[in-house]
Amino acid sequence: PSELHGLDYLLRNYIVTEPKKRTPIDIDKLIDGDSFDRRRVLPEEEAQKYVGKIHPYITGRGFSRRTLKRYEVGYDEELHAVTFPVRTSSGELRFISKRFVHRKGFLNEKNIDKKDIIYGLCYILQSSTKITEIDLTESITDTMACYEAKRPAGAVLGRILFKEQVRELIKAGIRTVNLFFDNDRYGVEATLKAYILISKMSPIRVNVVKYPGGHWGIDGTDGFLYKDANDLLLAGKMNEIDIVPYDEFLISLNKSGLMDINE
Q1: pLDDT tens sequence across 203-262
Q2: CB burial class (10 A; 0-12, 13-18, 19+) of residue 17?
Q3: Buried b vs exposed e over 101-139: b needs ≥16 C-beta within 10 Å?
């Protein structure tokens, strides 16, 4: 809209003589525009209508009924997609991620803010014992793979860790994070950037998960690339990962010749 339209809007809605008749100004809406409801809360019924419906695709990824129940995994029969409720740390349902079973790809709503969500953190906070160390993965299924291997984990829902997510880790009392991003060049880059942000914003200790065999981002075990935690679960290799301090990761990365990845 033009400046003239904006002025006309203010005159019609706010320039009145009686204060009681003035329309309250919604600052959040003015700042965010049409996406002011990006952090909306969905009713629980939206998730529950899919829960309990299990498709062979997801069990074929190595997940037990126990893990599927823990993460409230379901199935949308109309879209032929596995459903994953995505909740905030307090347990509010923000949106439902859907993974097609007959073709690659996810179906996620547009304009939904997920920068403040560490997927799976709400379930960790429900634990009867205090959990202060978690693996941090890229995807939902990688977090589920860690849980299947009895490793507390959360996902950043992509390759980028945001400052809002670091705040959620701090509020949850997490003291140690093991960066468990994908075993490729992009995963290495994401690891470097995540460390910088976490170290700037918090006292959280940062380690890095080293995949079995090979170099960082290039796994040479039997010539096969284990791309992520779910691949390791399927291969029975989750017990072969190593947790190394970030400094050791950096030294190894330098020796491998991949240090220019962040330049």
Answers
A1: 999 999 999 987 787 766 666 679 999 999 999 999 999 999 999 999 988 887 666 654
A2: exposed
A3: beeeeeeeeeebbbbebbbbbbbbeeeeeeeeebbbbbb
Task: Answer yes or no: are the C-beta atoms of 183 and 226 closer than 8 Å.
Answer: yes
Confidence band, pLDDT 50/70/90 cuts, at residue 27: very low
State the helix-helix crossing angle for 185-201 and 163-171, rounded to 10 degrees. Answer: 60
Residue 36 pLDDT greater than 70, yes or no:
no
Confidence of residue 59 (pLDDT cuts 50, 70, 90): very high
Q: Could you give the CA distance from residue 91 to residue 114 in angstroms, rounded to a whole number? A: 14
Cβ contact 228:182 at 8 Å = yes
Residue 192: CB atoms within 10 Å: 20
Q: How far apart are CA 81 and CA 96, in angstroms?
A: 11
pLDDT tens string 143-185: 999 999 999 999 999 999 999 999 999 999 999 999 999 999 9
Q: How is residue 44 written in tokens?
A: 């629980």
